[in-house]
Design brief:
Layout lengths: L9 H10 L9 H7 L5 H28 L3 H15 L7 H11 L4 H5 L6 H16 L2 H7 L6 H15 L9 H25 L3 H29 L2 E2 L5 E2 L7
Antiparallel strand pairs: 1-2
Helix pairs in contact: 3-4, 3-5, 3-7, 3-8, 3-11, 5-10, 7-11, 8-10, 8-11, 9-10, 10-11
Length: 249
């Protein structure tokens, strides 16, 4: 009889989760081009317009987690993620900040909120993520949110590089990234605690957690793939060249 592998220690498990950052979409070619200042105005606009669909999906995902979670204390902490994006009382949230980002890159509010520039691949990937949160145990959905471990770096990249690489972008448009620097770090603490507590019951569960986190990394990667395909030239080996009609301003 083969004995089950011993669970990793909490420290080892956390380290394994952090190692998944090697597959974070900060390394995707489109995000690399963005950081290096190689995107055209239309391409940056396309990214902003497409990623808005992900932004409006985040509070739906978090509401799904709360609806499946019987733990009152977890819900009391998790609800902050919804108000962070939807806003509360007179305080505007991340969704409003993203609309301002759209305006800062030259889009209108209607351009962004109408979703008319969102590619089918982006919709499919985001919807798959929301459905995962609705259908799976809440602890698994919490685990999938741990790509936030790697988010502060990508937000800081944009804050640091955009003023130099894209000086035409209005500075107030960077508010979303600045806001998420502190929010993401706070969210990670809660999500990491839940994940380590729940999945450390066995090595098999810890390995499942790594698979769940990989699923979310894949979602983000597919979103970047879809955006790149929607606004970049594609050269096929047989010499056929396909370019999607540029619909951005």
């Amino acid at each position: 009889m083969i004995e089950a592998a011993t669970p990793w220690s909490r420290e080892e498990f956390e380290s394994k989760l952090c190692e998944k950052g090697k597959g974070y979409h900060i390394h995707h070619p489109f995000n690399v081009m963005m950081y290096e200042g190689k995107l055209s105005k239309a391409q940056l606009q396309s990214w902003v317009a497409n990623r808005f669909y992900y932004q409006i999906g985040i509070p739906q995902k978090d509401a799904a987690i709360m609806s499946n979670c019987p733990d009152r204390e977890i819900r009391r902490g998790w609800i902050l993620r919804i108000t962070d994006h939807d806003g509360v009382d007179q305080v505007q949230g991340g969704i409003e900040a993203w609309i301002k980002l759209g305006e800062a890159v030259g889009l209108t509010e209607e351009d962004v909120t109408s979703l008319k520039y969102v590619s089918p691949g982006v919709k499919f990937a985001v919807d798959a993520y929301i459905n995962f949160a609705r259908q799976r145990p809440w602890q698994e959905a919490v685990c999938s949110s741990l790509t936030e471990l790697f988010a502060p770096h990508i937000h800081q990249q944009r804050i640091s590089s955009w003023p130099e690489m894209y000086p035409w972008v209005k500075e107030e448009g960077l508010t979303y990234f600045k806001k998420r620097l502190t929010e993401a770090r706070r969210d990670v603490e809660q999500g990491l605690a839940v994940t380590i507590d729940y999945f450390s019951q066995s090595r098999a569960m810890q390995e499942k957690a790594l698979e769940i986190l990989q699923f979310k990394l894949d979602v983000l990667w597919v979103i970047a793939d879809s955006i790149m395909l929607s606004c970049c030239d594609v050269n096929i080996e047989n010499g056929i060249k396909y370019k999607r009609q540029d619909q951005m301003r």
